[in-house]
Amino acid sequence: MKRIFYISSLSLFAMQSAIAMTLQIPHLPSAVLVTAGERLSDDGDYPDRYPLLAVSNDGRGELWAINPLPDFTRGNFESASCTGSGSTAVCAAVGGDGIPLMAISFDGGNKWTKKEFDSLSLCGDHGRLEGVSCTGNGSTAICAAAGYGKDSGHPIPLLTVSVDGGHTWTDKVIPKVIHGGYGAVSCSGNGATAICTAVGEQKRKEKENVLLVVSTDGGQTWAQKPIDNFPTDVQYPWLESVSCTGSDSNTTVCAAVGNYNDINGWRYFLVTSTNGGKTWATKSVANYSERNELDTVSCTGSGLTAVCVAGGYYGLAVSTDGGNTWAAKSTANLEATAFITSSCTGSGSAAICAAGGYGGLAVSTDGGNTWTPKSIGRDPIRAVNCTGSGPTAICTAAGDGYIAASTDGGNNWALKSISGLLPYSSFGTSGGNKSLRKMHH
């Protein structure tokens, strides 16, 4: 896989014409669910794009409604995240329309306002935010948003952070990171000890490399991290997705996945940190073809019992020991599925995980050990998201004009009505993990 940073009069092309985000607030019964994406003006070759938000605040994902966005006239949302619960939850959705876009809600997704980024001076002549992640509660919640700008034809990384629940934002500049950009970000923990990781690609002296930066002090300071045993002399290395879980530096586990090209074609790579982002190392996946790609990852729990699931073309890789070892998992009747989205919730052997994409939906109710195909009658599945724990966990799946949900831990699924939904609307990625997007060099 390869991502090339460019901005056109439309938006970044994404396999189909829609990019979006599903997110969650994990405190039932006051769970708030939000999907963010885009609505097209028509189905022609050059449609206008409009940001789109759908909210469910019934605590079960049964009732959904499109939220009006009077401050947004064009563009789309690439990613979204919520933290907290009920009417005090903080939510953010980000994307772009030539310039970075952000919508903020401080009341559990009921009212959204446009956040202006006058301070993003590094944006150059174009820019967009690709990922956002929030953790913590209320006015002390930590949020980080990441993406890229474009200056004189060169991509430049954009990273902005809020430490007061999304009210004010500060740009972060990483020393020696000049050209490149971020595609995903994940935060875990609370306040000044929250851990955040942003990933993507950078370019130094015409040589491309992965970009991985970490904050261990609640987003205040950031540093680029080396990766042990990372392959050298490869083309187009790009970290596509990242997920962190845990509450402190001793128990926080992070995993990031991506792909690179060598003389024989595309290969996956997977990197993990088991010490709160301090150090990172590459990992292999037992019984997983090195030619398979990995495009999405989700982790839940903490420490040595954390569960992580990564998906790609064509298979799933699972770690049940905090990211230390990984193995491919069988997905019966879904061998041809291109997994582009994944989500896990809960802990240990009771964790609930879902993975979907082009060709199907798979669910695990035993911490990623076994997987069962689920049918919702729609394809592709651009987003999955799970929140809560055990048999009452809520899972959602979303895509082009639909949202489906399970209210019994991923076992049974049904399509849900969406009040105010207009034609050519689409929902796409999930919980901080972005849908696969094939870009051409």
Rg over alpha carbons: 19 Å
Briefly note the structural class of the backbone.
mainly beta
Biggest β-sheet description: 7 strands, mixed
Distance N terminus to C terminus?
10 Å
Q: Tell me the strand percentage band.
A: over 45%
Q: What is the overall silhouette?
A: globular
How many E-type strands? Answer: 37
Which percent range fits the helix content?
under 10%
* Low-confidence sequence ranges: 1-29, 429-441
Oligomer: single chain
Count of helix runs:
0
The average pLDDT value, as a whole number, equals 85
Please describe what this structure looks like:
With 441 residues, the protein is mostly beta strands. 0% of the residues lie in helices and 49% in strands. It has no helices and 37 strands. The strands form eight sheets. Strands 1, 2, 3, 4, 35, 36 and 37 form a seven-stranded mixed β-sheet that branches.
Summary keywords:
441 residues, mainly beta, seven-stranded mixed sheet, five-stranded mixed sheet, disordered N terminus
Topology:
Elements: E1 21-24, E2 33-40, E3 49-56, E4 64-66, E5 76-83, E6 90-96, E7 100-105, E8 113-114, E9 126-135, E10 142-151, E11 154-162, E12 170-171, E13 179-188, E14 195-204, E15 207-215, E16 223-224, E17 227-228, E18 235-245, E19 253-262, E20 265-273, E21 280-283, E22 285-286, E23 296-300, E24 307-312, E25 315-319, E26 326-329, E27 338-345, E28 352-358, E29 360-364, E30 372-374, E31 383-387, E32 394-399, E33 402-406, E34 414-416, E35 418-419, E36 425-427, E37 429-430
Parallel strand pairs: 1-37, 4-35, 17-21, 22-26
Antiparallel strand pairs: 1-2, 2-3, 2-36, 3-4, 5-6, 6-7, 7-8, 9-10, 10-11, 11-12, 13-14, 14-15, 15-16, 18-19, 19-20, 20-21, 23-24, 24-25, 25-26, 27-28, 28-29, 29-30, 31-32, 32-33, 33-34
